Fold this protein.
Amino acid sequence: MSTEQDTPLVVAGREYRSRLLVGTGKYKDLDETSAAIEASGAEIITVAVRRTNIGQNPGEPNLLDVLPPDRYTLLPNTAGCYTVEDAVRTCRLARELLDGHDLVKLEVLGDEKTLFPDITATLEAAEILIRDGFQVMVYTNDDPIIAKRLEEMGCVAVMPLAAPIGSGLGIRNPYNIRTIVENADVPILVDAGVGTASDAAIAMELGCDGVLMNTAIAAAQNPVLMASAMKKAIEAGREAYLAGRMPRKRYASASSPLDGTFF
């Protein structure tokens, strides 16, 4: 199946050509941020409201000056929030700063060392935000039961981790990710743990609808080149998934069988 026969990524009723979502933190300056995101081809970009100026600090460099909302879909996130109250407050601040924008990425962290999600708090915060009219994309662990529960609550996308945030360890539990994908009726996007292009391709080959990353690009020796590599990896992985890989076999089989040949 060619990419022309593929369907677009649909999040909260909006279609996107790119299945790569990228963060805006950890770059050396706004110019590098802009160049890397341009090279990635991403259309959805995440913004850590507690760490990035999107208008709440007048007189300081504003991310929106280099990444305008009329060109990108901004995805405010609750990075750095460890309580339900902080996460909900941060989403409401983002909605106020962005003129009623209601698409957010929810993450409620439970541990400062691993940055694993606090699932109990995540469920509670998601319920409050959905009731408050937000379109919630939610960061969670790779538990298929929790992923389905978040979907049933009304989250518009579920984003299981591949490995701890910023670790670059790649997909540690592909079987759980695959199970989450098979059970889902909303987009599943791997979030956290991708380190290089092959990790992104594997996520897409598992059937994920997309991948979100930040550190893998921003912490590369050449972030702009890595962003370009990630774009290609997402596209290649998606095509491989649609094509359907050959079955794994214990033994080789000749590409040109000898049966029926003349000697």
Observations:
- Strands lie at 9-11, 14-16, 20-23, 44-48, 73-77, 103-106, 135-140, 157-160, 189-191, 210-213.
- Residues 223-243 form the longest helix (21 residues).
- The two ends are 38 Å apart (CA to CA).
- The first strand starts at residue 9 and ends at 11.
